[in-house]
């Protein structure tokens, strides 16, 4: 038996068949996956003074390991702060120096506060 229900229409001397709808049942689709939320790094923003996160850098001065990943994610949160890094500039070189200085101050304060050293 066909998995479709066919309805015949008599529009000409010849009969034509038109597929109306499918009758076979389909397995229910899985619920949509919940996308990851934004990386906030609140545990880094709220660290107490004196708490250190020692970041190791490779020969090319790239942060590596779990702590390097933490540093990279933290820097991403700084870049997403719209009051510090507005998105109205298409190129980094077009962004006024005052915004770059503000970002650098945040990074320096955090560096001193949590001890980001190699």
UniProtKB/TrEMBL annotation:
<feature type="region of interest" description="Disordered">
    <location>
        <begin position="19"/>
        <end position="38"/>
    </location>
</feature>
<protein>
    <submittedName>
        <fullName>Uncharacterized protein</fullName>
    </submittedName>
</protein>
């Amino acid at each position: 038996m066909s998995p479709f229900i066919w309805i015949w229409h008599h529009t000409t001397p010849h009969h034509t068949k038109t597929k109306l709808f499918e009758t076979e049942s389909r397995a229910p689709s899985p619920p949509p996956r919940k996308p990851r939320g934004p990386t906030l790094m609140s545990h880094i923003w709220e660290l107490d003074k004196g708490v250190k996160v020692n970041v190791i850098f490779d020969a090319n001065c790239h942060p590596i390991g779990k702590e390097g990943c933490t540093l990279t994610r933290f820097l991403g949160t700084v870049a997403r702060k719209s009051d510090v890094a507005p998105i109205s500039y298409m190129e980094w070189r077009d962004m006024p120096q005052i915004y770059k200085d503000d970002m650098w101050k945040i990074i320096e304060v955090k560096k001193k506060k949590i001890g980001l050293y190699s």
